[in-house]
Amino acid sequence: MLRQTMWQMLGAMCTLSLVAHAMLDVPSHDAVAAVKGLVARRLGEKYLDQMSFEVIPAIDDGKDVLEIGNDGGKVQIRGSSGTALAYAVQWYLKQEVHTQTNWDDHVLQLPDTLPQPSSTVRVEKVSKYTYYQNVCTVSYSMWTWGWDKWEKHIDWMALNGQYSIHSVGAHASHWFSTGINMPLAFTGQEKVWQATYQKFNVSTVGLNKFFAGASFLAWGRMGNVRGSWVKGPLAQEFIDGQFELQVKILTRMRDFGMIPALPAFAGHIPEEITKLYPHAKTFRSPKWGNFPDAYTNVYMLDSSDPLYIEIGRTFIEEQTRLHGGFTSSLYQADTYNEMDPSRGDHEFLHQASKAVIDSMTKADPKAVWLIQAWTFNRGFWGHDQIQSYLSGVPNDKMILLDLYSETIPIWPRSANFFGKSWIYCLLHNFGGNTGLRGNLPQYAQEPIHARGQSNGTMVGIGLTMEGIFQNYIVYDLTLQMAWESKPVDLAKWLPAFVRNRYHIENTNAAQAWHMLLQSVYNVGDGGGVTKSIVAVRPGWDILHLTFQPTDIPYDPRLVVTAWSHLLAAADAVPHTDAFLHDVVDVTRQVLCDLFLANFKEIKRAFIGHNITTEEVSTLCWGSHRMPRC
């Protein structure tokens, strides 16, 4: 008891002392070459002659700076890094050209001659990091991607700078800026695991039983599942191809000066290790997701076993070797993703985290561990358990992703993670569902509150949605919140968003989004976007407003009104990719809401014995079998 009390006192002292931030080096890169390549790919080569690019020094604390102005008739883009130059291009596109880049790769609408900036602008980057991706995102949205798609997406990351006005002088505007500079980079790691486990004599058959299938790799990497339940193991051709893809991904991220988060060892091992090293301390993880025992209950290595450090060290050494000596020194690993530790005492939890960071620093003394605080959402993790686990890692060796900050934030109940650096993250989406839903008023102010209460430990903003290609407005706003000093005024922000998205000011388009803000985007979070019951296993008890809600708390008539305004805008708004996408998206939501309303009517009648099965069919399908619901 005395020992536990001492640890609690030490944790409290840490939160009151100066914060020891994790230090990461930006990769060396040719910033001008990187942004010229981006402009040629995304805007077109002809625009290179209309723009000039120059690298300038960073501000005193090493953070990025950029400037936009007029250079003898050319649009002048100046910045201290590849991402700073890319942010400048994005700022110019939004503010002067009124167009928008997004993750759907919608075609930019550009004039033949670029307009000159209306004023000289200087941007000083005050955020440290902007993180991007959930470990699940690759399996929900990206696992089929080749280089063509990845190249466009990395360009989107680089361009995706957000901004807010800081001060305006007579001749210059000064802005805060941020963008994605810390992306997850997990592709192709199975090649590294092969090289690692070969050094521990694990056979190909043993690894085949360990690696998850191609579309389930995310959960295999997290230690939730093992093996492939489809025909045949993970193909070597796929493993090799994914590693080659990762080489291209990392090269391009480094070109822009991003700091990719690389994989590391978290304790999950092939079953064959238990036979090759019979004296090693191993155990089985809890059953996950109701999968059959053959595909879950993953074998784990006890953190106190010397083999733990050896495997972790070897993995990072092999990863660095296979990538030609490159490492970002930032490693993402989660030992207990949606699983509870086998013990809850301080000594065990302290040692469990210490082993992870020690296995990293044995290979890379500069290593920083990036961990998802999603682990701490489960009932096992109280204040003391979180403190014990985090105590095994020095403050300057860890950054935590508060993965679900908008709904179940961990930072308030962990004293800002006991002095460690952390990133406020918006999860918002589970399973890649596409229902229109969000809480823009909350997102426009809550990160400001969190940063103000963080005692300097909150070092950035992150997007950690499980699936992308949905509700883009939610993420566009969240990125802007990276270092806003005051809550965003949505009454001003929303019209600008609509104008940039459709490349024109239009009353109907603006009114459509105003109606969406009053309905689907003003919903207190129930945990994820709305799931349509069209895609849910049929039953009478399928409606709820809790986690992954199937019911709606808003007035669906407002969505119908938004839909009407959007259709009314069609004659005036250019039929761009973004506009057509939104027409389809809102139409889908209107139909889903209508289906939901009819389902409720049918249920009331059927449960009350006021309707027959035949009448249910007629209500849904009509006499000509055409759907009405």
TrEMBL record:
Keywords of this entry? Hydrolase, Signal
Instruction: Give the signal sequence positions.
Output: 1-22
Q: Where is the Alpha-N-acetylglucosaminidase N-terminal domain?
A: 33-115
Per its record, what are the GO molecular function terms? hydrolase activity
Domain (Alpha-N-acetylglucosaminidase C-terminal) ranges: 493-612
> By its UniProt entry, which InterPro entries does this protein fall under?
Hex-like_dom2, NAGLU, NAGLU_C, NAGLU_N, NAGLU_tim-barrel
Domain of life according to the entry: Eukaryota
**Span of domain Alpha-N-acetylglucosaminidase tim-barrel:** 131-484
Name used for this protein in its record: Alpha-N-acetylglucosaminidase
Species of origin: Aphanomyces invadans
Question: What is this organism's lineage?
Answer: Eukaryota, Sar, Stramenopiles, Oomycota, Saprolegniomycetes
